[in-house]
Amino acid sequence: MSDTEVRAVVAERAARAGAAVANERFRDGVDVERKGRDDVVTEADRAAQRTVIAEIRESFPDDAVVGEEEDERKTVPETGAAWVIDPIDGTHNYVRDIRVWCTAVAAVVDGEPVAAAVVAPALGDAYTADADGAYRNGERMTVSGVRDPRRGVVDPTLWWDHDSRDEYARACEAIVEGFGDMRRLGAAQVVLPTVAAGGLEGTISNLRANPWDSVAGVFMVRQAGGKATDLDGNRWRHDSTGLVVSNGHLHDEVLAAARAIEELD
Prior knowledge:
Layout: H1 3-25, E1 32-34, E2 40-42, H2 43-59, E3 64-67, E4 81-89, H3 91-95, E5 102-109, E6 112-120, E7 125-130, E8 133-136, E9 139-140, E10 153-156, H4 165-178, E11 181-182, H5 188-196, E12 202-205, H6 215-223, E13 227-229, E14 243-246, H7 251-261
Parallel strand pairs: 3-4, 10-11, 10-12
Antiparallel strand pairs: 1-2, 4-5, 5-6, 6-7, 7-8, 8-9, 12-14, 13-14
């Protein structure tokens, strides 16, 4: 196998291992700690991250690791190989016994993802992406073919702090005025594969996404035929401001909704 193919295998293996650890503790009375007013963490997050890293280290002991918890680095290096991991994306759902959460792993080389896996064990879904495409439970997936905004469903993803609720309100308003319906799943790395699989036509935020909340899922969307940009319509990167993702057919409309959050022309 090529190096990229090996990374795809390891990404899936590591995501499945981390998700299994988290799932063992799901709905089991896990203690919840606060990292800030609006952010929570559990020992399940930390245990799952350690498991993911251990799986990666077996095959790539010298690669950089970008992870949400503990002392892992928080930025994606522009050169060399790295792994971007979120042990539990959707922790607020997790601690409320809601099934919409996942473990996400992306392999990155020179700042660009080359493979990814998102495993949502409570939902029974495992999403993967490699150089050849994107898959849900082993079946190739593609973005939806919807071209009429009135049939489109869009998710306002990421999370706006309490002092930015006006932006959250504008995001919701732009979606309900411009599209057929709105969903808010509460876990970006579940939302993004759902766009890739055709369940949503887009997702928007004006915020700068943490790499662990975005890199794996954006890669899946692109490999499934979709599009991801920043607020200016430029190709999205791990350090971009704004996250605008669509099935491609409705990208102009989704971008306009994202720009409305900050009342941009």
